[in-house]
Amino acid sequence: MIEVTDLHRHFGGFRAVDGATLRIEPGTITGLIGPNGAGKTTLFNVIAGVLKPTSGTVTMAGEDISGLPPHELFHKGLLRTFQIAHEFSSMTCRENLMVVPGDQSGEGLWNTWFGRKRIADEERALRAKADEVLEFLTITHLADQRAGQISGGQKKLLELGRTMMVEAKIVFLDEVGAGVNRTLLNTIADAILRLNQERNYTFVVIEHDMDFIGRISDHVICMAEGHVLAEGSLAEIKANEQVIEAYLGTGLKNKDQLAGASA
C-alpha cells in the first residue's frame, strides 16, 4: 500500500530522515520503533504531507504522493494522528467527530439559504455515524462532554474515532499510548485490532511501549539515525544486535534489557 524509497528530509545540515526505504502492506499493523531522534515522527510527517521530502519518493497503491498536502492525502484515505491530541476543546466529543467529513453542505453559503433540508438530513446522518463510532470505542458516555474536559487517553480514543468518520485506508498513529493509563491503553489496542480485523484498516504505529507493540503488530520496523535499521517480528527485532546497540549502546551482554526498555 505504502512504499517509501530512499527518502530524505534535511533541516540544514541535519539529516532527520536519511535514506529511509520501507514498505507497508495493506491490511497490516506495523509498529515503528527506534531511539529518540531516530527520525520516526519526521518520517510520518513527510509521508502524511506535513513536511515535503528533500528527496526520495512515497507511493500509495502505486501512485506517487510525494509532497502532496495533508488535505489531498486525507481525501485519498491517508490519515495521521499526533502525539498530542488536537481536539476542539470547547466542542463536545460527538461534535468533534461530526466536523471531520469534508465538503458538508452546511459549509456553503448558498446551501445555508436554500438547502436547509439537505443540511438537516446530513447532520442527522453524521450524528448517527458519530454515535456509532462512540459506541464502537466504548465512550458513548462522553458524547455530550466537552472534549477539553476528558482525559488524555480518552482524547486518544477520540482521535482514533475521527479516522472512523471517513473512509480511511491507512492511519499513522504517533505515540498513541503516550500518557495513557494501562486500562485505556488496552481499550485503544482492542479498537485498533478490531478496526484492522473487521474493517481492514491498515495502521502504522509509533510507540515506545513494547508490550503494546507486541500485542497489536504484525511487523515491526526499527529506525535509527534517519534510516531503517532492521525489520521483522518483535522477537526478531529484540534479538538483533544492531537494534540492541542503537537502544543501549552496550551490545549483547545487555540483550535481556531490551524487553523492558522504552524506545
Automatic annotation (TrEMBL):
Keyword Glycosyltransferase: no
Domain named ABC transporter: residues: 2-250
Gene Ontology cellular component terms for the protein in this record: plasma membrane
InterPro entries according to UniProt: AAA+_ATPase (IPR003593), ABC_AA/LPS_Transport (IPR051120), ABC_transporter-like_ATP-bd (IPR003439), ABC_transporter-like_CS (IPR017871), BCA_ABC_TP_C (IPR032823), P-loop_NTPase (IPR027417)
Keyword annotations: ATP-binding, Nucleotide-binding, Transport
GO molecular function: ATP binding; ATP hydrolysis activity
Name the record gives this protein: Amino acid/amide ABC transporter ATP-binding protein 1, HAAT family
